[in-house]
Description:
This protein is 42% helix and 22% strand. By secondary structure, the protein is α/β, with parallel strands linked by helices. It is elongated.
Amino acid sequence: MPDGDATRLASVETYLPANTDELVSFYDESFHLTECSARHRQTHAVDSLVDATLWHVYPELLAPSTKSAVEHVLSSGLPRNVEIANAKTGDQRTLTVFRSSSGLGVVEADGDANLRGTYSQAETDRALLFHQATHDVLTGLPNRRQFSDQLRDALPVSKGVKFALMQIDLDDFKPVNDTLGHGAGDTVLKMAAERIRSVLGEQEIAYRLAGDEFAVIQRRANQPREAERLAEALVGAFREPFTVEGINVFVGASVGIAVAPADGNEFEQLMKAADIALYAAKEDGRHRARKFNRSMLMVLEQRETLRRSLRTALKEGQFFIEYQPLVQPPFSIVGFEALLRWHHPVVGIIPPNIFIPMAETDGLMRDIGQWLLEQACREAMSWPAHFTVAVNLSPAEFLHAGLTDRIAQTLDLVGIRADRLEFEITESVLLERTINNLDTLNTLKVLGVQISLDDFGTYYSSLSYLKNFPFDTIKIDRYFIKDLEIDDKSRTIVQSIIALAHGLGMRVTAEGVETAKQAAWLKKAKCDRLQGYFLGKPMPAEELGVFLGRLMPPVAFENFSISGRTPPLDPRRM
């Protein structure tokens, strides 16, 4: 019999009194018998059965009413009492059926009819206590306690034994809670648990650890091949949307794999390896599985070194700003977006997608964001008076009290007009503390600054945002712009966003414009502003004067589709 079921049997017998005769048995999700107590083996003569199943041991459960009760326990995870009668003798028995780690557990009560009700209730109470102590109430999966106990018991593995640990984290789950409510989130978690169960086979057990975190222990010899196969199946199980109250919700899964003993032969070692692999899967774009390797540990250590350096970067003046032009067709510059950069004294230029998440996690974005805002406003004061400066506001900055006060003080300190300042926010800001953040945005509107919704179309793109808050600008994400020349769907989506925004009195900016044909199509589609390398790369403040000094006559976008020259950006036409 599998070691896991023997462990569970020992756990159950710990909860049940030793001075009673117990009939305890375990079955997998296909209802095959996997383990039973000595009393049960003797009473039901299971040794004489080949490939015994629940239906062989208790044929009375095949009746439609009792069979549905058993299947309900398997699907819901909640224990139930099932009354059965022996077809020959008519003796009544009570079965307490409960969810076990890999299927079902059954405790059978029999005896004197006068005592049976009390006895079976006691059995139910004990089975329920055991279930509650070792299983997650929401999903019916074994919980963190049982996971920790079983993983610790399995380690260290003996020579020649291999097994895999998989850490699973749901992608894009938090927005479900924030937009649809915690009831919808609970529904998704239950369905997620069922999808995880659906791809598991023998010697594979799933656990819910906390929130949207799950784990699987796989006891198979052919590692890491078997673990990689299962991990891909787990990721694939989440490719289809969940339907919650008629709404399709897309929640994916990232999986980190660690194999014992190669990646660790102690509890903490193996957990850390799986966590690092999960982190790598998230960093690689999520919705995928990654197997731990030592290079991941090196990357993580390098990131921790950068994280420590980040704490002194602001004080040591390592940040700087590059500016990318915002162009109104045909070629009128209307402003620049301020892009934060970090020049590490040893490593060199660190991409913002690396250091900004670190700064957000470590609570540094308040000070870094304040420096960016003040510096960009000061540099914008040297530009033509009608140029705007666009500054990105991190979701983390909304978590700090006094954001609007700091912005108002900066406007007064620098002396720049409020309408020359534009804040770009992503939809993730609206998914965090939604009511408070909307209040903050409304206060900023009262100050007179402009608000732009960045990367529109890449998150949930809820139209309720556009209804509840009057954005000045919607920025179409580069994902839809890059395929404009070849993809009808991208063109249809972009045209629809432009029409929607204009109907709501908002401007539209297309980012990631890389070719003359893209620019020409967007101009024809009446896109208000364009941004991208075709129109101007990000540049330091000291180069803006030269850039603005290119006094060339305006030429239509179409004329640059062959020559490949940089288009003439004419500040005289603004």
